Amino acid sequence: MSTKKRKKPTYKEGTINGEKIGEARRLTRKERQEQEYKSLVKLLTSCVCILIMVFVINWIVTSSFTFKGINYKEPDDNEVIEVVSSSDEEKQAERVNLHLNGDLVVKLEVGDKYVEPGYTATSDLKGDISDKVIVSGKVDTNTVGSYRITYTLSYRGIKPKLTRLVKVSEKKVADKDNNSSKPSTNNNNNNNNNKPGTTEPTTPSEPVTPSKPKGNINLKLNGEATVYITEGSSYSDAGATAIDTNGNNVSGQISVSGSVNPNVAGTYKITYSITNYNGEVLTVVRNVIVQAMGITLTLDNSNPTNKAVNIYVSTNVDNFDRLMLPNGTKVPNKTYTYKVTTNGTYEFVVFNTAGLSRKATMVVSNIDKNKPKGKCVITHGQNESYVTVTATDESGIDKYIYSGDAYTGNVITITRRLSPGIQINIGFYDKAGNYGTTNCLAP
Question: For domain 218-364, is the CATH number 3.90.950.10?
Answer without folding.
Answer: no
